[in-house]
């Protein structure tokens, strides 16, 4: 159910109403929540991991099944205007019957290249029959979520099908001209529950946190790479610029509301000395009580991305981690504006095969496939 106090209608949005809404959301920043999460990350980083990760990858686990270019997406605005696109990256994938639903981060021909902070990306959605998910794709798409003011961009969709129905998550990065609540930039995660029979959200509201001081709900300044692991758990990735620290936590959730006091940080998911940060990518349920979490580490010197997998129980206990990357940044597949970047935003399990939908070099989409048993075979299990 939508919380009207925090929700914004994405149907025929008004810029004036959105400015008022965004100002209210950003003003509800909680330093108390940030302190709690920062302490949990610092404590986990101080502990020795039971599984040591390395950047050195063995053989590739995944192979490319399909790819999608921005120029191969036919997109029209709600008003019917043709919108030419330059990139199609960081997609979420949702299997719906015989179709793969793709939520894709795109930008227009005039947008600055990613990761320039002036890039203006948004999210479109289209369907491809699963039987046609191979080779070069063509996608007829509709806009799903897009910026409503100049100082923001919309990024990194994720989806979950659970007891609440189909939940769509996305990131809004905002750089206001003047500081708000003591911050000159925000990176927030928003969620929408999709109406039955529709792939387009009608409302959005921010993922928010119970404030340990006053018991109300609030946001924090930067929490991208945040998405549900299950109906009751959230993968949360805050970033603390002053500490140079960012890593995933597993936290209890009540819909879009997270309990920071119950969040757990694992040393095995923390950045090692050669990493700038780690972050969650996506997850998929692989059994009645187990979830496969895809996460990444970023090289502290050269910025290369490395993709790992972890196994978590239904109550959020970390069971296993791959010591080596399960996929390299695949330098021979494509040459884009941000080399050594492979960023999955979606995972699906189809007939024992894991499908990953990933952005390559922040320009194109790759659909990767690997047998689930091959991924699990790369894991080192953690003794209780």
Q: Summarize this, please?
A:
By secondary structure, the chain is mainly beta. The chain has helices at residues 15-27, 31-46, 372-377; strands at residues 8-9, 63-68, 73-75, 85-96, 99-108, 121-129, 135-136, 139-145, 152-162, 165-174, 186-194, 203-206, 208-210, 217-218, 227-228, 233-236, 239-240, 245-246, 249-254, 257-258, 275-287, 290-299, 305-313, 318-321, 342-350, 353-360, 364-371, 380-381.
Annotation keywords:
384 residues; globular; 6-stranded mixed beta sheet; 45% strand; 5-stranded antiparallel beta sheet; Tachylectin-2, Chain A; 28 strands; mainly beta; 3 helices; 9% helix
Detailed description of the structure:
- With 384 residues, the protein is mainly beta.
- It has one domain: Tachylectin-2, Chain A (5 Propeller).
- It is 9% helix and 45% strand.
- It has 3 helices and 28 strands.
- It has helices at 15-27, 31-46, 372-377, and strands at residues 8-9, 63-68, 73-75, 85-96, 99-108, 121-129, 135-136, 139-145, 152-162, 165-174, 186-194, 203-206, 208-210, 217-218, 227-228, 233-236, 239-240, 245-246, 249-254, 257-258, 275-287, 290-299, 305-313, 318-321, 342-350, 353-360, 364-371, 380-381.
- The strands form 6 sheets. The chain has a 6-stranded mixed beta sheet with strand order 14-13-20-19-16-15, with no helix packed on it.
- Strand 9 (152-162) and strand 10 (165-174) form a beta hairpin.
- The chain is globular and about 55 Å long.
- 44% of the residues are buried.
- The mean pLDDT is 95.
